[in-house]
Specification:
Blueprint lengths: L1 H28 L1 E5 L3 H15 L3 E5 L2 H10 L8 E6 H9 L3 E2 L21 E13 H6 L20 E4 L5 H14 L1 H12 L2 E5 L4 H7 L5 E5 H9 L5 E4 L7 E9 L5 H11 L2 H5 L9 E2 L23 H6 L1 H12 L1
Parallel strand pairs: 1-2, 1-3, 6-7, 6-8
Antiparallel strand pairs: 3-10, 4-10, 5-8, 5-9, 5-10, 5-11
């Protein structure tokens, strides 16, 4: 009887060990991603990545500035492994604070040098151009012309009728701030932003929101990435029009990177490798994402072709990333 009892205990211990190993293996295989691109695209990416690799993956969607703040708080115990989408200059800010683990993917050869960091801090997966969106009905009812340059936004007729994203939470908004400062110089740029603040009726948490607010007629003018406007038109917001400022505009390189001291490093590298492929990048257009793609083999959506020849400034991502905290503080102090 005693021998039987000992055998039973050993058997149960063995089963427990096997179950523990299986659970540990399952936990090790589960990948968490912080995503700053549109939610539908993140859902599709996770679904397809799981199908192709068998790696269980979940994501949390936040604006770029919100993710930066989140990983600052999690620095000593990083919860996610990958940052997927969002403006590259915010990734540079994160790296400056010790929050990014450089990784040169073997697939990065498919991404032109101008769309990736030479040290593997971030790698670009899409490009988006800043521009203006207007409610066409509002313009006609008030007999107002579409703004065509940044200075036009300061005209009296736009007072209280402009909606912008908030630089504290939105990567799109910081791209606006950094564009103005690089275009006009810091002193004149901040002076312009101070004047523009008087015109703004609402600051939104996300860079996606101004287009929706304008499309609904709750504001006359917004500033956002123009690929978002294409999406809103296809979703039924027919009463909108868009333009890129003729005096020059900035742009984003949406990036992917691995977080410093992240769990599941091998799985994180597999996701970054996958995200740079032609197939992964082309998934976006199937769910209403119309950015220009960075993989030279990938076919970008046809819809943004009409904006490819806009007047782009020589946007300095490294400078923008390293000066992000300082410029946002100046912007916030200006508004107080």
């Amino acid at each position: 009887m005693r021998k039987l009892y000992i055998l039973l205990v050993c058997f149960l211990i063995g089963i427990s060990t096997i179950l523990h190993k299986n659970n540990t293996s399952s936990e090790e295989e589960r990948l968490t991603i912080y995503a700053s691109l549109m939610e539908e695209q993140a859902i599709k990416a996770v679904e397809e990545f799981e199908k192709e690799t068998g790696i269980k993956t979940n994501f949390i969607r936040r604006s770029s500035g919100e993710i930066l703040e989140k990983i600052r708080k999690e620095k000593e115990n990083m919860k996610a492994s990958v940052w997927y989408g969002g403006t590259a200059d915010t990734f540079i800010s994160a790296y400056e604070e010790g929050l990014i683990e450089p990784y040169k993917s073997p697939n990065s050869y498919m991404i032109p040098n101008e769309y990736k960091d030479e040290n593997g801090i971030w790698t670009g997966i899409y490009i988006g151009y800043l521009g203006f969106i207007a409610n066409e009905r509002w313009l006609k009812e008030n007999n107002i012309d579409m703004p065509n340059c940044w200075e036009d936004l300061l005209k009296p007729e736009f007072e209280g009728n402009i909606v912008l994203p908030n630089p504290s939470s939105s990567g799109t908004a910081y791209t606006i701030v950094a564009t103005i400062v690089q275009l006009m110089g810091e002193e004149k740029g901040l002076e312009f932003l101070n004047k523009l603040d008087k015109q703004v009726v609402q600051y939104t948490k996300s860079g996606l929101t101004p287009g929706i607010v304008v499309g609904l007629g709750e504001a006359g003018i917004g500033v956002t990435f123009l690929n978002n406007v294409i999406r809103y038109e296809k979703e039924g917001y027919k009463n909108i029009e868009m333009v890129a400022p003729k005096d020059g505009t900035g742009y984003e390189i949406g990036a992917v990177a691995i977080l410093k001291d992240a769990p599941n490093m091998n799985e994180a590298k597999k996701f970054v490798d996958w995200s740079l492929t032609k197939r992964a990048q082309e998934l976006g257009k199937s769910v209403g994402s119309y950015q220009v793609l960075t993989n030279y083999k990938a076919a970008s959506p046809k819809e943004p072709e009409f904006i490819k020849d806009i007047n782009l400034i020589k946007y300095d991502f490294k400078w923008a990333g390293k000066n992000r905290k300082r410029l946002i503080k100046k912007f916030e102090d200006m508004r107080d």
